[in-house]
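User: I'm curious whether this sequence folds into something compact or stays loose and floppy. Could you predict its structure so I can see for myself?
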Amino acid sequence: MKKIKIGIFLGVVAGIIDVIPMIIQNLTWDANISALTMWMVVGFLIATIDLKINPILKGVLTAFLVLLPTAILIGWEEPASLIPIAITTTILGGLLGFSIKKILDKK
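Assistant: Here's the prediction. I'll summarize afterward.
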């Protein structure tokens, strides 16, 4: 249960970091809430799945797998907007995987 709480908490932190520029850009609240919940789910999954790979790669892979259905919808309308989304997903996913592993190893 502890690793679930850590994963969700760090997912919320990643979600807040992701949503701040979205709020500045005046994106809709449904997009903001979607991004925040995506990172909560990613944090939960990173903390609970048992992939025997580098934690940074695990975070990036998990984040992209969760993002994929939404990325198809976004890319269909605005393909260029996928570039900053991919960059953010790579950075936050890697940081989330690293952070979760680091904290869980200490406990």
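Summary: The chain has a mean pLDDT of 95. Residues 2-106 form one domain.
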